[in-house]
């Protein structure tokens, strides 16, 4: 079975073709009503994965930040009631604001990419492919096409009809301590090691912003390397809202460099650095800092588990015609 693909050094075109080959290799023709299935769209919408990968590649060519943006959207969606496209909705379905307006979701981006894929698919196989499956696949392809790990995506998710603004406000926070992080992930069925993998993957790519670390710089944090703090202070002094790479060493890659950064006390957020000083999480930091292959293998399993957690299938939910509007 293929679970991880090493595409370092390949051209963008070769990466795109390889993703399609691997997807086809792991596809299955088995069908179980109400269950996620790798071959779910083989008969009803055969071009699905080709369209997703091609559109993701075209957006990546213009804006590499698509990769961390989609990964973050997947995480924020799946962690709140299962991956059902809820952050894509422009209405909560009730009197509350929609989930996408919750504080942790205000910086989400990639909505235009999801909409572009959905529009193409509705023109070819209308009413077939859910927005949730589009997001699950687009996030995987964006990471793989930027030299990150490959993971299998099973299909058959249905879209939710509402979003939960209040629950979204309780997503894991960059200010969280280890106890808080472990409790939130344990409530979703994740081990301490899986939590470290998902935190590490999410924070090994993309950017944070100065307000999220201001207190660590203004009141010197003994857990933050002084030389790293000295690099960050002038950036945030010049622009209080400046973007900072989560990983200053390999910023465009989802890789295991995050764990080495944390070992060196160069975790950008409090929630990162906390993991080095807790006996429940430090072993995983050390394990994945020492092995890029172990990280890629185990991250693939953890993100696949997250993307399949509590999803709607079968007669549940719906398939939206427009991802921002519930049917």
* Major sheet strand order: 1-2
Shape: globular
Which architecture of the largest domain per CATH? Orthogonal Bundle
Can you summarize the main beta sheet?
Answer: 2 strands, antiparallel
The total number of structural domains is 2
SSE string, helix = H, strand = E? HHHHHHHHEHHEHHHH
Mean pLDDT: 91
Q: Could you say which structural class the secondary elements and strand pairing correspond to?
A: mainly alpha
Reading off the top of the CATH hierarchy, the class of the largest domain is best stated as Mainly Alpha
- How is the CATH topology of the largest domain named? Peroxidase, domain 1
Tell me the Rg in angstroms.
Answer: 19 Å
Residue share in helix: 40-55%
Low confidence ranges: 1-5, 25-32
- Beta-strand portion reads under 5%
Tally of helical runs: 14
Number of strands: 2
Description of the molecule:
The chain is an all-alpha fold and 327 residues long. The protein folds into two domains: 12-171, Orthogonal Bundle (Peroxidase, domain 1); 178-302, Orthogonal Bundle (Peroxidase, domain 2). 46% of the residues lie in helices and 2% in strands. The protein is built from 14 helices and two strands; from the N terminus they run ααααααααβααβαααα. The chain has helices spanning 12-26, 48-62, 66-79, 111-124, 131-144, 165-168, 178-187, 192-202, 214-218, 226-238, 257-263, 270-273, 282-289, 292-307; strands at residues 207-209, 243-245. A two-stranded antiparallel sheet has the order 1-2. The longest helix has 16 residues, at 292-307. Mean pLDDT is 91; it is low at 1-5 and 25-32.
